[in-house]
Batch of 3 targets.
Target 1
Amino acid sequence: MRRFRVHPPSPWPPLFASRPSPHHHHRCCPLHASANSGARQGNFILPGATAATIVMFGILHARRMYEDQKVVERKEKGIQPEFSPDFMASFLRLLPLRSISRLWGSLMEVELPVFMRPAIYKAWARAFHSDLQEAALPLEEYPSLQAFFIRSLKEGSRPIDADPNCLVSPVDGKVLRFGELRGPGTMIEQVKGFSYSAASLLGASSFLHGAAEEDLPREHTEQNMPADANAKSWWRVSVASPKLRDRTLLSPKKGIFYCVIYLHPGDYHRIHSPIDWNIVKRRHFSGHLFPQNDRAVQTIRNLYVENERVVLEGHWKEGFVAIAAVGATNVGSIKVFVEPELRTNRAGSKILKFQAPDECVYEPEGTGVMVKKGEEVAGFNMGSTVVMVFEAPVSSKAREKGRVASDFDFCIKAGDRIRVGEAIGRWSA
């Protein structure tokens, strides 16, 4: 486990700057500047790469329109999607999706001719319902599709709910699932008919285990501790869907909740803090890059557990909190502001089920990095999924029939479109 000392500037610089941040000072000699200028000019002499980028854009647009139409048809027929593996799910495992994603990333970075930029970005916005009025810069100033996708917004575009007893959305996207983790297994529903373990998503060394067990009677803990617990490998604990203790045995002071939000390609791609909290640990899982559209969610087992992801963990005034940024096809790049040198979807990295994740503890140990509600913490290239798992207050009254009555209430519904800063849930003071 590596330790990482962070000295965040105040205020924080943009996560993906289209121009050099005033907080960053670079030295460069005229020779280097000239070489970089020549490289930029060379990009304009790559009509093949530019054409390939536009073709990929068209294919992605057509696929999205087809998938959206299928969703509409199912809703009109009243069909609720269920888990049903098919041949395509097995076929995807044979494709080099990580390499394809790196190639797509290279195409995304190709500098587009200035006169073509507004037309291409406006076409993308129409296809994926992006609001170009929110962009912080004129369209001509985004040199590539990647710079456009990870664009920042004008100040005030995402007002943050100031209620101190409110948890807000960290991203723009569609609410897929939410609820309370209660009972043996603490499973998160992927789709009707299949669920995955929250502990598998976050990892065997997650603080979630301690959060769930902190109030268990000592004798109960000892009785339920298997004799060979220390002998279990990371593979057996993390990949084999570990079970947490039954929530009905815990203290009624806290509950553990989750929320899953999917980001469409046209959404704003930066991740913001949902509350004031301290990021203590980062965990990077090198995994597959399966797509995360409706079809994939309904056909690929453990989709979010198998895909590459970065988990940020820490604590807030009410206890444990974690944000898992899950990668997807063409979204292998996940950026973390407090650790800009982190690289995901690296060429040559192995994908083994028993491979432990790369961990980093932010110093000072136990405190980490303090972030305020609404501040940027990470970001994606294109669309993907964010899963939040967190503790929140529950009623201090006696539990009814062995269940905890929660003071925390979600104020969203599955299928809702939500934006950064809008309330996900509230609790009474």
Target 2
Amino acid sequence: MRIRLEGNRAEIALGMIHLRETFTVTSVSRAYPDRARPRNYRLYVTITPRRR
């Protein structure tokens, strides 16, 4: 599954922490600047369910 995180750097970092607690993160893109909001970024993350 591919997820797009949007927000400032602190929000994206917090989102990544929560994703890594629940899922296996298989790839992370670089942070792209958001055109509409100059202080925000977009980050694309590919995750898979964790094996239990």
Target 3
Amino acid sequence: MLLILFFFSHQLTDCDSSVSDREREKRWAELFDQLDLNKDGRIDIMELRAGLAKQGFSKKSLEKMVAAGDTNNDGVLDFEEFTQYLRAHEKQLKLMFHRVDKNSDGHIDAAEIQDCLRSMGVSVSMKDATRILLSMDKDGTMTIDWHEWRDYFLFNPLTNMEEVARYWKRSMMLDIGEQLTVPDDFSEEEKKSGYVWRQLLAGAMAGSVSRTGTAPLDRIKVFRQVHGSSDVRGSVKNSFNFMLKEGGPWSLWRGNGVNVLKIAPETAIKFTAYEQVKKTTLVHERFVAGSLAGATAQTAIYPMEVLKTRLTLRKTGQYSGITDCAKQILQREGVTAFYKGYIPNLLSIVPYAGIDLAVYETLKFSWLNRNRGMVDPGVMVLVGCGAVSSTCGQLASYPLALVRTRMQAQASIKGTPKLSMLALFRNILIQEGVSGLYRGISPNLLKVIPAVSVSYVVYEYTRIMLGVEIEGRRGVRVKS
């Protein structure tokens, strides 16, 4: 069977003004024949999925397309329904094309994409707008003409520019432990409709399940970060056995409760701060606004970070719960103890978020540029991009994260000197070498794939339950 993409790139090249209805229906008939695999005169969901598999459409998108064209409600499309759908959808696409093509020259450039998104409350840089353009530009002219626009969206059941903007963003952020990434942009319509909070809630639910599932690896990471090579020598396995022997199987989840509890306030504060930063400072660069929002959120919830570290490291019977832990810290060490390690934590936001975002976007759009005309890279490609970018971000910021954790835990370990950030760095380098700054990173990297997998599945089901519909939803962002 000929590829549908090949068919369009070679057959849909006439000017609309010179194409008669007969010629257009002839092309549609050839296309219908290609999709009708069993030659019964009807196209069902399975045939659409097979015929359009390489364009990456979700089952939900194809079901939406069939529902839009299925006038007799029999669950399939005959030729008449198929052509009626294409004709009506082309008209919608034409209106959307003209809305973006503000100067009415028949071509859409990167500036027009940027202006269109900004008019809907979504700020993007010229670089990002150019990347969107390149994913659709088949002939290398650095513009999108009507044919390229139509071919790209013909089988995508988008009905307005708000849906196109959402599709361009390809937004779905997966949580694998610590929310250091840059928040997403949403249009004004999405904010007013409640879509934003439903999506954030779906992400929080996914993060809760994901963090709980990978909590043992997270505890091993924290344990090795704090104790270094002095108390537990050897491999990750030795650390695991030590904790299992000290507190039993349930001890592997120590600190997970507060780690889950802090997801909701951190997400809400970060998103709210991100919106305010963009409005009050006129900062349109997503990374800068995101870093400031991340710093604000971390400042507000940082005491929970300290509690998480202390509870993760606690010995059997040391604390009865979160409240008891907070009470003991306050009585013995004072209020300032809740902000131990705050400075290295704040400093780690910039290198992590910057490198993670830059590497992810570079990998994703490099793939799209090499595979022009593909609707979606697919889950595996994007999860791979996220895993690589997350790893790069961790490698850059991990020494700061390690120092932060040790500063948070210093007062709880007898005989440990209360060192400053710089003194700790120097002490680690002298006693453990450069590798000491990366102690505990192996379990942190090991949890990436299982965390993303669990988070993706939970996110999908929660999103469906909450009615969060995302066209092109396979745009996975990993939050680490």
